[in-house]
Amino acid sequence: MNIIIAGGGKVGEVLCSELSSEGNDIILMEKNSKRLNALISKYDITGIVGNGASYDLQMEANVPKCDIFIAVTSQDEINIMSATIAKKLGAKYTIARVRNPEYTKHLDFVRESLGITMMITPELESAKDIMKVIKYPTALSVESFANNRVNIVELKIKANSPLRDMSLKNFRTRYGNILVAIIQRGDEVLIPSGDDFLREGDHIFVVSSLKEVNKFYKLIGDNRAKMKSVLIVGGGRITYYLINMLKEYKMDIKVIENDPEKARELSDVFPGIMVIHGDGTDQEFLEEERLEAYDVFISLTGVDEENIITSLYASQKNVKKIVTKVNRTLLLKIFGTMGLQTVVTPKRVIANSILQFVRSLTNTSVSNVEALFRLADNQVEALQFKVKETSRVINKPLEILPIKNHLLIAYIIRGKKLIVPGGQDVIKPNDHIIVITKEKKYDDIDDILK
What we know:
By secondary structure, the chain is α/β, with parallel strands linked by helices. Helices cover 33% and strands 26% of the residues. The strands form 4 sheets. A 6-stranded parallel beta sheet has the order 3-2-1-4-5-6, sandwiched between helices. A hairpin with a 4-residue loop joins strand 7 and strand 8. The two termini are 24 Å apart.
């Protein structure tokens, strides 16, 4: 597909990397010539120096002939204007990143009025992800499929866990409809078989309904009480969206913000919330604010290193749930993940949404990509397909389908039925299928076949 991206920042770079690696023709529009040249030399893309909202520049980039135009500059107004001009010029689909809460209050109205195909707010989506792990305290991450009917939940095997050293054959016998879809063991990631064992320190990704997962928590003795209090360091946009969600959950909320003007603004918008002006990365200050008394600690400053270090300190203080914002995920390999629990990466959130959209357009005759998530440090994809009558996977027992290696058909959703498939099960037209794979670039259910 011919895709034009306006903006070569953190999100723009991720999109250039991911979309070019999947065989798309990418043109990047970026005002900073040094930044543009660096990305052109790094990825298989071409580029034009200039403002993505310029009519002349869009004509030079041949926007009227492009399949998708994506505006992800640092300015909402430029993104909205760029996407609107691109649509008027004839781009088939347009996507704009919008971050300002003033715009997101009326996102659908703005999108429909201007004819923009998709408007994405990474901070809002990140806040939703954080809220999921607060609602389900044992989980390190939660991804939802089929309108929240099926979920992939990340858990860690602890030293005292009854799951430690258990074979997956015994796991399935004991826990029924809970399916272990992924095992992450250090840098190694497995799509496991029944012969594999669970080890201390493993991160496992289980697939089931949340009702079944909650039963599973009780069976393994890890059914934690509801989180009642939260301490947030950093008063940016994610915090703004998150406070609105936490208020509905009736939690005791405290926010620490180092910028006095930001702290004052946040206090004015949320008069019932305790907002403290101070340095939330100062360990003595955190002790004064009684960090150890809170159920949840969330570090959302604009500096990755500070978020990691304060989260590690919260771990030393035995805070039950810790959430850390990290954009440069390479830092996790440098610092290690000891003490970190849930890591949120806003640029990855928006990239996954756009990748899902792009793949959903690629092959609609056999199946549609309805959901896409990257798991286990971006090494595994979980996809949901809607299967059509023309697919080669239908009406054959799964045990005879020539399915590729390192791949798992995790769930079949058939109307109101949720099916954990066995060898005798078959896929039927209109089924929704959840596939877990280490191989990327799948845009069609038939791609699972050898």
